[in-house]
Amino acid sequence: MKEPNKGGGFWNNLRQGGMPSAIASIRGGETAQQTAQQMAFIRSLMREKRRPEVLHTPLSELETVIFDLETTGFSHQHGDEILSFGAVKVVGEEIKEEECFYTLVNCQTSIPEDITKLTGISEEMTSAAPSLIDGLHNFMSFVGQQVLVAHGSNHDKSFLNAALWKTSKVQLTHRVLDTMMLARWLEPHRSNYTLDELLAVHGIPIQGRHNALEDARMTAQLWVHYLREISQKKQVDTLGDLYAYLSRA
């Protein structure tokens, strides 16, 4: 192919990292259209009503998505943001290892040094990551309408709600279960319900802590452990039964 005329302003602009205004306008339009489509998808997903029939699903057949978020801190009200999403699907007591999700997020705030040490996520890594709307859209596409499960879910749910509102002006409508609540119900004698503590006492190997996907995988193992305990010791057969027991715990 013949090399373009190097004297032209068009090609010089491209080589120097610039972009002619007409092309920039087209690219901007494409990005805006994609964002609008992502917002529309997220909004439609949140508008779907919770299916009451799911409450009759046996726990042995229940489809769940176990998830975890890494964040820049503990308060989205004070500007902390999501750094990464991690999730894995579980059907009944079977962890679908091949059906997992992970993405970093290009957060719009600085990452404290202690968070980088804890998670291994640096600003250099997130600068090349997908935007919040991209990461959120892909995560919710993975989740679909499945029941969500997390450990200490208040933190994850609050950040997820903040992200949904920031990008799409909606709130999470999915059912969310908390393995910490299960632990408090099934093991009321414990004084410590951290993920590390519960993994250790139940013999679940701890590896890759504070990586969203690895934490989701370990939480999935804890979820399955509790499902087995429930099936053996409690008169709990369906998701509705589980909600009823947890509401009285």
Q: Helical segment tally? A: 10
Strand content: 5-15%
Mean pLDDT: 89
Order of helices and strands: HHEEEHHHEHEHHHH
- Residue stretches low in confidence (pLDDT < 50, at least 5 long) are 1-27
Give the strand order, joined by hyphens, for the main sheet: 3-2-1-4-5
Q: Helix amount, in percent?
A: 40-55%
State the oligomer.
single chain
Q: Major β-sheet, in short? A: 5 strands, mixed
**What is the radius of gyration computed over CA atoms, rounded to a whole number of angstroms?**
22 Å
Under the CATH scheme, which architecture would be assigned?
A: 2-Layer Sandwich
Spatial separation of the terminal alpha carbons: 73 Å
Provide the number of structural domains. Answer: 1
CATH topology: Nucleotidyltransferase, domain 5
Structural classification: alpha/beta
Kindly state the number of beta strands: 5
InterPro entries: DnaQ (IPR006054), Ribonucl_H (IPR013520), RNaseH-like_sf (IPR012337), RNaseH_sf (IPR036397)
Keywords: Exonuclease, Hydrolase, Nuclease
GO cellular component, one term: cytosol
Domain Exonuclease: 63-232
Which properties best describe this structure?
15% strand, 10 helices, disordered N terminus, 249 residues, Nucleotidyltransferase, domain 5, alpha/beta
Question: Topology, please?
Answer:
Layout: H1 9-15, H2 21-47, E1 63-71, E2 82-91, E3 94-104, H3 113-119, H4 123-127, H5 132-143, E4 147-150, H6 153-168, E5 176-178, H7 179-186, H8 195-201, H9 212-233, H10 239-248
Parallel strand pairs: 1-4, 4-5
Antiparallel strand pairs: 1-2, 2-3
Helix pairs in contact: 2-5, 7-9
